[in-house]
Amino acid sequence: MSATTIHPDGRDSTGAHAALAKDAARAQPVDYQSLYDDYWSRPDRWGSHSFADPEPIAEQILSSCGGGRVLDVGCGMGLLVRTLLRKGVDAHGVDVARAPVERARMLAPGRFSNGSILALPFADQSFDTVISTDVLEHVSEADVPLALAELARVARRAAFVRLAVTPDRDRTWHLTVRDRDWWEARFFEAGFSRHLLSQKVVGFEQLDDEGWQITLVMQKLPRPEGFTHDMLTTTGRCAEAELARATRAAWFVRPGDVVVDLNARSGAAAAVLAAQTSASRVIAVCADARAADIARERFGALGLPLEFTAHDPATLGRRAAGVLLAMETDARSAVDLAQRVLVPGGRLILGAPGAPSDEAFAGFTLERAFAQRFGSAQGPSGNAVSRSLRQVDAGTATDDADFSLRVFTSDVVGASAEGYVERSFPDYSDDPEFHVGNYARDHDNPWLLRTMISMGMRSPNRGLVARIAANVLETARPGSADQGAALCVLAYRLLEQDEVDPAAADDLLARLARFVAEAESTPHAQRWKISNQYVIGQMHMARGRLRDAREAFLCCAEMDVLVFSPLLASKTVDAGFYAGLIAANTGDRAQARAIWERSLRELHRVLHADWLNIWGSPERPMPFGLPDVGLLVDAASRCAFGLLWLDDWDRRPGQAWTWTLQRTLSDHRRWIARLEDTRDWLDRERGRFRTLSQERGRTIERLQQWIDKLRASREWLSGQRDQLRRAVEQKDERLTAFHGQVEALRARLAESSAAAARFEARSAAWRDREAALNQAREWLSAQLKAQAEARARLEAANQHLTQTVENLREHVARLGEARAWLQQQVECKEHARARLEAANQHLTQTVENLREHVARLNEARNWLQKQVEQHDIARGNLQAQLDQARQTIARQDQAAQRARAEIESLTQRVSQMQLLLDRRNRDGQALRLWAYELLLAKEQLAAAAESARARAAERGAIIASLRRSLARLEALRGRPRSAPKGGQHQPADPKKRGRRAPRR
User: Fold this and answer.
1) Stated pTM of the model
2) N or C: which end of the chain has fewer CB within 10 A?
3) Do 476 and 345 fall within a single domain?
């Protein structure tokens, strides 16, 4: 079906399509043909593809699954199929929609078919590889098992799948939205296993950065009786990490190595090493004979150089292995075995849980150490643990590592040639005229080839290579090939430095000159004589001694390379180019012309010699022969361009220099090497940036928590302020009530005073009438006594009321002071709240800036969503605490003391918040600096890539011009010529073609 054109952004409209998609989501049957026939009927969909560039996908498919007969399921308009056809692949396509298939058939007849992924119209195992890009997520979950079963049925070897794992915009078209683990489990259930080269397509660390779309590379492997599972059929990070370790170990297997896996278990790691390397043999030591039989049945049909055995590895012969892999085994036992079975310069790879150990072993040098992190999906703090497998320096603290790898190199200095067998390339050593690969004949220590000499096989640890060369130099015979090789390695290491030590350079130049004068007559010693003469010129040129450099280059250019191999002419021809260039720059155009012409004649001479020492034979060519011929022709092409532009050296110096110094293939290779180094640096920086991003996320989390707490505190303070206001209002109401009571008491006192005055008047009247009222005297006396007692009681009451009024006045004064103090505290709290709001606004703005900066990080987005949920929970908890606080405050009589204590606590919190804010600002500045450096590196890398593409175009023009020149040379060669003069090259006797060229 044509699901390859559905983009995950969900740009498709709703309607009948949405209805069908919803039906599929409910596990109802879906009419995929009608759905996608209607889809392709839209004018805006016709001619569209789900990928902008099919080339990267095609390269990934071919580099992992290989060529052969390939089927693209859900091919749509067939762009990927046509791309594979242009690469010579027998590619076919099938789609459920009819219209795009008809169009594809017009462009490539006989290559496209109609059919559903649920019932592919092909026989069992009719294709080596099946491809599915942007298809399976558009299949309902109920149909996924049937779709995968069909892919497994028609595939003979492998499956390459790319699909989305996130919903589309409308949440309609992606009927099955699952993660990588779920999809891998479904593929495993369908009979697939992880491909042995799967992490060459999607690396271990890249699994964290796949985003909305994942790539699955699967392989069909037998599952014999007794097989349970291995890292190729198990989901999760542990299995991925185990596969990553095997893939990393494959880096250190040289061509032709014999590899021994001491703890093979199911044999999967050994199969990875055999599939990803050019090892001649991979011996997997299993736990018992039954495990070896199961592994043999599972991987034996692949045709790889795999051997499964349960025999004790101690039975291996002396110097029988080039690599010893010891994962989770006793390190000391592995070292003891390696000292006997490893060849000189062989590698021992130790793997163990935890951080790399600092333990050293006699007879071995640490070459590389790696620390791996995979953990689980969530770390102890709830944050995601990023996958990583990074190189670490010796002594570097890596306490957080889950697993470690250490690569050791066995001592090679002073080793004899015992047991040396050439396995890196075809061996023609039985021919006495074969020199280029006959190291055992001419080198005292032929093991140096793999450890120190060959650029493709020697250690990537440049410091280790330099130390080996220095040690070889101390023991090598003067004039021997071993001495020449060590001197050449040290010279190039010195040239790689930006600032060369003058004393070291002069000492090395003297040693190089002595070797050139004393070199033995063996072909390999002569090879190093020529190479070292060339590097002498390079060192003089680097020191600014142009006259000495020209003389050294001229001496090199006059040496005869046929004593070793025509390939060595890349040095003599390039030496001629530099000698001519120096002559041209010093104004000696005639000498420059003569030197460059001689270099071109030298190219013609050596390429017409016997090719035994170029490629061995056309039936079994040497792997480096023809590429080195390309380097030779590139060097000569610069001489050709120099001749063409020599007359313009003064008139158009810029043009002359540009064309003369054309970028050659070797220059492009150096650029590629630099780009690869830059890529490695960017990978390391990406790991550091990922770590910083995680730290930043955790910092943001802490700041967000503090912000939430501050917001809750602000709300609590607002509530406290309102409660205090209500308490003050209640006090005011009570004071008002007290004032009313005082006024009432004063009124009652006035009434009592008036009554006393009236009683006094009556008493006076009664005394005036005492004589007339004698009969009432006793009664009046009693009444007066009673009035006196009442008056006393009233005076006492009046005094009590006066005291009460004074007490009330003092209480009112204290309440006024309390009210003023409370008002002052409220104003202080208002000021504090204003400062908190300003700080909160600043924090909010800063957090927004950080959120914009990390918006591309999906982990942060997911984390923020979780934090919102936690914030809601925390807000509910704080609300409950607030209610409890209100109840507690209501029971307390001294609200002012409580407010003072809370204000002091708030002041401490504000201080803590300010400290965290300062720390966050420093972290933000550091993150912005790292981001700027990464952007700058990216721009530099893009500029370098653009420059490389431009130089590639210029190289194409050079090659075309050179071909024309060669054609003219061949035409001139076909003309009749006079008898050659003495010293000129004699044409080879036709009867002697294929045999060695005669020596001079």
Assistant:
1) 0.65
2) C
3) no
